[in-house]
Amino acid sequence: MAREEFLAALRALSSRYWGSHPFHVRMHAGTLTPAELRTWAANRWYYQSVLPRKDAAIISNCPVPEVRRLWLERIVYHDGAGDNEGGREDWLRLCEALGLYRAEVLDERHVVPAVRFAVDAYVTFARTQPWVMAVASGLTEMFAGHLMRRRITDVLAHYEWISPDDLAYFTTRVEAVAGEGKQAVDLVLAHCRTRAEQDAAVAALAFKCDVLWSMLSAIDAAGAR
Ligand SMILES: O=C(O)c1cc(C(=O)O)c2c(n1)C(=O)C(=O)c1cc(C(=O)O)[nH]c1-2
Q1: Residue 102, SS3?
Q2: What pLDDT was estimated at residue 12?
């Protein structure tokens, strides 16, 4: 495929992205209960907590020094440069603002089996596939910026007990995600040259859309816990 056609095939997967999942639709409409929001935050914690291990798997499979150097920043972003910093910490603060104790998030007691299964599948994918396919699977980040901006606006509009400070994870993340998405798409376009590689990259992104969708379906089914 020519560059534009390949890019269009990747972007076309936005229709499979979790932005349109019924649980997100309800979140944006303001109809989730506080308990449902806690279920969401405690389960998504599992995703947040494994992202650095997924990124470390990409680094471990990648022979290109420049890519490894770039990718390292993602690990530091989530884990922070020191204790009590980084995306991981911001997510825990969101959990606390929603009424969860840090300990009950960290011990994963609220994580439902299908969320664990879906998230673990993402890490296994990054460990076992060529590094560029794992990068392609992360291209859901291309679609995330728009959704996060909407989420910040709609959550603050509908849930008056949630403050802008509580959403620091998203307000900080929304800045980073556009740059990361661009970086990742450039790598995929540069390193997937054959039709077979391009098709595999599109399939990798479809797989990741399914990971996210499955997570949210499991969270939706878990309801208020
Ligand atoms: O809030 C969201 O809707 C959303 C979506 C995604 C995504 O689409 O993968 C990520 C994030 N957030 C996010 O915060 C994040 O750090 C992140 C990392 C990755 C990835 O696959 O490496 N996706 C996402």
Answers
A1: helix
A2: 98
For residue 211, report the distance from its CA to the centre of ligand 1, in Å: 11
Quote the CATH superfamily of domain 3-222.
Heme oxygenase-like (1.20.910.10)
Domain map of the chain by residue range?
3-222
Nearest atom in ligand 1 to 143's CA: 8
- pLDDT tens string 143-169: 999 999 999 999 999 999 999 999 999
Q: Measuring CA to CA, which residue among 66, 76, 204, 196 is closest to residue 140? A: 204
State how far the alpha carbon of 63 is from the alpha carbons of 60, 132, 142, 196, in Å: 8, 11, 25, 21
**Whole-prediction pTM:** 0.96
Does the C-beta of 148 come closer than 6 Å to ligand 1?
Answer: yes
